[in-house]
Amino acid sequence: MKSVLTIAEMKERARRRVPKMFFDYADSGAWTESTYRANEDDFAKIKLRQRVLVDMTGRTLESTMIGQKVSMPVALSPTGLTGMQHADGEMLAAQAAEEFGVPFTLSTMSICSIEDVASVTKKPFWFQLYVMKDREFVENLINRAKAAKCSALVLTLDLQILGQRHKDLRNGLSAPPKFTPKHIWQMATRPFWCLEMLQTQRRTFRNIAGHAKNVSDLSSLSAWTAEQFDPQLSWKDVAWIKEKWGGPLILKGVLDTEDARAAADTGADAIIVSNHGGRQLDGARSSISMLPRIVDAVGDKIEVHLDGGIRSGQDVLKAVALGAKGTYIGRPFLYGLGAGGKAGVTRTLEILQREMDITMALCGKKNISQINRDIIDA
Ligand code: FNR
Fold this sequence. Notes:
Elements: H1 7-17, H2 20-26, H3 34-45, E1 63-65, E2 68-70, E3 74-76, H4 89-100, E4 105-106, H5 114-120, E5 126-129, H6 135-147, E6 152-156, H7 166-170, H8 181-188, H9 191-198, H10 218-228, H11 235-245, E7 249-254, H12 257-265, E8 270-273, H13 287-298, E9 303-307, H14 313-321, E10 326-329, H15 331-362
Parallel strand pairs: 3-10, 4-5, 5-6, 6-7, 7-8, 8-9, 9-10
Antiparallel strand pairs: 1-2
Bound molecules: ligand FNR.
Ligand FNR binds near residues 26, 78, 80, 252 and 308.
Protein name: Alpha-hydroxy-acid oxidizing protein
Family: Belongs to the FMN-dependent alpha-hydroxy acid dehydrogenase family.
Organism: Rhizobium setariae
């Protein structure tokens, strides 16, 4: 993995190793993918100030997110179906993150369960919650996350209904999934991926199967999932979840200043400025372009985090400079996982760390608390 120097190279390795339908699932956005592209492109438009003759010794990237220590301000985003990039993907990514000292967030829609991940990690991880119509199921999930000692609940707000991704529809990645000779061929041409998958028995959504009513096989599971997202979700539900959970709460998927103020009023610990990686509302603004306005709107009332489009350590620093206390990576860690399992995720984190450290030094700063709008050439 050491020969991989950039996230773009990691992506190409993953493309060669993961069957097309699952690679496309990670590498897709809603409709025209304009928001997906903007997330990345808008980072490139932000220019940094080069500084010289500043003492650059004794640098550190250590910081905190919701008061929890992190070796750098980067967490792993919750991503559904992670275990299809690599067998046992959620467990491997959680271990890589734990060893690196950054938070791992397990999605409700994971292949491996909360209990699977807890069984292979020593430190607490974070759990992402989708609020399903079946509130008994939701309460049960919250209790399972508590029992596993998860140290934060990430509540996703921007998926009351499912966005539409053309690549997934064309690839038959729908509910229920369609398997055609084309898919079997796609898998047959990725023998290492297939061998790994054959060695594991975890190919169902294990947070759901066996826990939700009348869900036994892949077909009933897909049908259940498709109709369970709640179009009536409201701020009252957020208050209900906050009370049931009782621990650190992060609200994910805020992209509007009015929503940000409402989120801050809930008393949650943080919001994530996010458009779901461009997978929901195509045509929405990029996360990084909305960040300064949202930071200004909420002031010190709540910690502000950001995800969407981070592809280098420079992007992380730009987000921190514009007011994000922490950032998250979705696709970059999925590419690492697809390319090389746990070692690939570790390499992804190393790449970001190295890029961040060099950039911070060349901007004349020594630690994360010194990073502010001063490093941006506005
Ligand atoms: C996601 N995302 C997501 N979010 C969430 O809250 N729950 C989930 O289950 C998923 N599933 C998911 C699957 C895949 C394949 C991707 C790419 C994304 C969104 C994710 O948490 C995050 O917001 C974005 O991935 C961030 O953008 P980047 O880093 O991928 O550009």
